[in-house]
From TrEMBL, chain B:
It is found in: Cell inner membrane. It comes from Teichococcus vastitatis. This is Quaternary amine transport ATP-binding protein. The gene is proV. It catalyses: a quaternary ammonium(out) + ATP + H2O = a quaternary ammonium(in) + ADP + phosphate + H(+). Signal peptide: none annotated.
Length: 304, 415
């Protein structure tokens, strides 16, 4: 019995080999650029003394969320320090931030392009579906082949997995800007760029920020997997736990990931659904209110 | 109709008419993918339902041609789906016309490039929207300054102008508020200020007051009329509300299924509706608010011209011949002097007093001003035992209103 074989696997193999044979210089440039971003953020975060970093995160929590959450943040961060995972957590955070930054730089313009053109949307949609559903290990291997081991392929794999929500929600947010706002913008003489910058993006901002939040959360789940190709961070702790069948180490690593996830989620969510800690609200008064208030009644996208 | 024909000619008429500000020439708008085919069918006079069935296109505006004069409040009226909002959006090309010419100050905007169009929108046109369309992330001041901002005006200058516009609509104290902190009426004042800040010569208003409750709506209409009178702006106002159209409109265009079926002054449209559709608008309208005393006053009464040496017997003879109990005494320039009755004249003649007409004037007959609406004068006409005289602003006699004439007019609205 002969199985039908369309040769798709061989095709993919051939493409990877072809890229490796002919585009190595280009790959090196990409790797250097991403390495620069990832390395820069990582160096800055690791160099930051732990008390200073804790102070910044707690103040952020106090300002954006509230004093209860700030208390939780203090306890959570002390717990991580107590487990001796501070440096690893900062590595993971740097990977998440680098991946999110790249995802935003690529994803938000792509989302805008999708909102403005049905053709772009039709093309981009299946690609986004592919990025989200393809098992991560499948592109982890070629990523390592193209860019070697380390933080760079880890970041790239994370970007691939985590970018779709910010693209989708940017697209959705801009498409859902009320028709009359667009008409008002046009009627008062906006150029297309002015319409985008002054009407569409400000009104889509809550949706875009919800996308950024989702991208951060997906990055965090991906960096653990990315540690298999040497991305480092808390993923290494978890991996070590698995490899040595050391339940305690694995649990500590996992707990640190959860704590980081909760902190990142609550703080970034506060930027899409405006809410303020009452203490700092009084301190900063109207100035802070004006800077950070997003439109009320605006769309807050459902979690992907 | 016939009972009301002797009407004074429309005083706002054609003498010294202001220049044409906006002109539409054979403007069509067809929505859909095969608009060329559909357009050909519309021009051939095919039924809109057929066109829809054959091409999938809907006809928004069908051969609209009219002119709007500078300084005029021009109301486009029709039921929902009649194409009135589409027609308004063709004027600033928020919707691209399928064919035809739209001239603003003599320039055809349908032939303009994107850049020219943007320049015209910034310099000559302001727009007010039904649901306000205020940007929620901006303060009231920045909303009002929006048009100036996109036109590239420096912050200090545009904020000064926006502040002035907000003060003109009575919102000077709310510059730092957010739109969601304001009531509906206040929001629309911001919308109006935003449209006025750039000092446009044309104001496009799309059902601007429809979302407001009736009291606020009337207030806003008065506000609009005041603002329009201060600087003679051309206002194109879309409304589905006949009362509103009659109240503020200098002229009204009535749309039905995408066609402009009638253009005229409120009086012309009430007096001689072009078809049953137009007539149907008045069914629910209280004409007592629409008609003015001058519109239905008729010269059916005997008028006596007060002059020296005029004998009373001649006057009594004329009244008897016309079978009238009362007569109106006017001067040679038709100024109203008063009303006399057969009895009062006979009494004056019996006493052989000098200046007989003057002595015979009935006490307590106060003439009605021609500009008063019927609702304002209804009570007095009903209570008066005889027809009441109507005078214009120079106190010249224009006719009188009898109970019968009043009832006939009011009755017309019911048919």
């Amino acid at each position: 019995m002969q199985d039908l074989d369309l040769g798709i696997g061989e095709g993919a193999d051939a493409v990877v080999t072809f890229v490796l044979d002919h585009f190595t210089p280009a790959l090196d440039i990409i790797a250097a650029a991403i390495g620069f971003v990832t390395g820069g953020i990582r160096d800055a975060l690791v160099a930051l003394p732990a008390p200073a970093a804790i102070a910044i995160i707690v103040l952020l929590a106090l300002w954006r969320v509230g004093w209860k959450f700030a208390v939780f943040a203090v306890a959570a961060l002390l717990l991580i320090t107590g487990m001796g995972l501070w440096e690893r957590m900062m590595e993971t955070l740097s990977l998440v931030l680098a991946a999110t930054a790249i995802a935003m730089v690529v994803g938000i313009p792509l989302g805008i392009a999708m909102a403005r053109s049905n053709v772009v949307q039709a093309v981009a949609r299946p690609v986004l579906d592919l990025m989200q559903t393809m098992p991560a290990f499948v592109y982890l291997i070629p990523a390592a082949m193209f860019f070697g081991l380390g933080a760079v392929p880890g970041t790239i794999a994370t970007v691939i997995f985590a970018m779709p929500p910010v693209v989708r929600l940017t697209n959705l947010g801009i498409r859902q800007v009320h028709h009359e706002f667009i008409e008002a913008g046009e009627a008062f003489g906006c150029t297309p760029v002015q319409l985008l910058m002054k009407v569409q993006i400000p009104n889509a901002l809550p949706s875009i920020m919800a996308g950024v939040n989702q991208t951060i959360m997906l990055s965090l789940s991906m960096v653990v997997i990315a540690s298999m190709i040497g991305a480092g961070g808390l993923g290494n702790t978890v991996l070590t736990g698995i490899q040595r069948l050391d339940v305690g180490t694995g649990f500590e690593g996992g707990l640190a990931v959860v704590v980081l996830a909760v902190l990142l989620d609550r703080i970034t969510q506060s930027f899409s659904a405006p809410r303020q800690g009452f203490l700092l609200k009084r301190l900063f008064g109207a100035a802070a209110a004006q800077k950070n208030e997003a439109p009320s009644g605006a769309l807050v996208a459902p979690k992907a | 109709m016939d009972s009301l024909t002797p009407l004074p000619q429309d005083v706002a008429g054609d003498d010294a008419a202001p220049p044409v500000k906006i002109a539409l020439r054979n403007v069509y708008k067809v929505f859909g993918d095969h608009s060329d085919d559909a357009l050909r069918m519309v021009r051939a006079g095919r039924d809109k339902a057929d066109i829809q069935a054959e091409t999938g296109c809907t006809v928004g505006v069908d051969d609209a041609s009219f002119e709007i004069r500078a300084g005029e409040i021009f109301v486009i009226m029709g039921l929902s789906g009649s194409g009135k909002s589409t027609l308004l959006r063709l004027i600033n090309r928020l919707i691209e016309p399928s064919s035809g010419a739209i001239l603003i100050d003599g320039q055809d905007i349908t032939k303009m490039s994107r850049r020219e169009l943007t320049a015209v929108r910034r310099s000559t046109m302001g727009m007010v929207f039904q649901s306000f369309a205020l940007l929620p992330n901006r303060t009231v001041l920045d909303n009002a300054a929006f048009g100036l901002e996109v036109a590239g005006m420096a912050p200090a200058e545009r904020h000064a102008k926006a502040r002035a516009a907000l003060e003109a609509v009575g919102l000077g104290a709310y510059v730092d508020s957010r739109p969601d902190q304001l009531s509906g009426g206040m929001k629309q004042r911001v919308g109006l200020a935003r449209a006025l800040a750039g000092e446009p010569s044309v104001l496009l208003m799309d059902e601007a007051f429809s979302a407001l409750d009736p009291l606020i709506r009337t207030e806003m209409q008065d506000e609009l009329i005041r603002l329009q009178a201060e600087r003679s702006r051309t206002v194109v106002f879309v409304s589905h509300d006949l009362d509103e159209a009659m109240r503020i409109g200098d002229r009204i265009a009535i749309m039905q299924h995408g066609r402009v079926v009638q253009v005229g002054t409120p009086d012309e449209i009430v007096m001689s509706p072009a078809n049953d559709y137009v007539r149907s608008f008045f069914r629910n309208v209280d004409v007592s608010h629409v008609f003015r005393a001058g519109d239905i006053a008729r010269e059916t009464q005997v008028t006596l011209i007060e002059r020296r040496g005029m004998a009373i017997p001649a006057a009594l003879e004329r009244m008897r011949r016309h079978d009238r109990d009362v007569a109106i005494v006017v001067g040679r320039d038709k100024t109203y002097h008063g009303m006399v009755s057969v009895d009062s004249l006979a009494e004056a003649a019996r006493r052989a007093e000098p200046d007989p007409y003057h002595r015979a004037l009935l006490p307590g007959v106060e003439p009605i001003a021609a500009a008063d609406t019927l609702s304002e004068v209804m009570g007095r006409v009903a209570e008066s035992p005889h027809p009441l005289p109507v005078v214009d602003e120079d106190r010249r006699y224009v006719g009188s209103i009898s109970k019968t004439a009043l009832l006939q007019t009011l009755d017309r609205s019911g048919n």
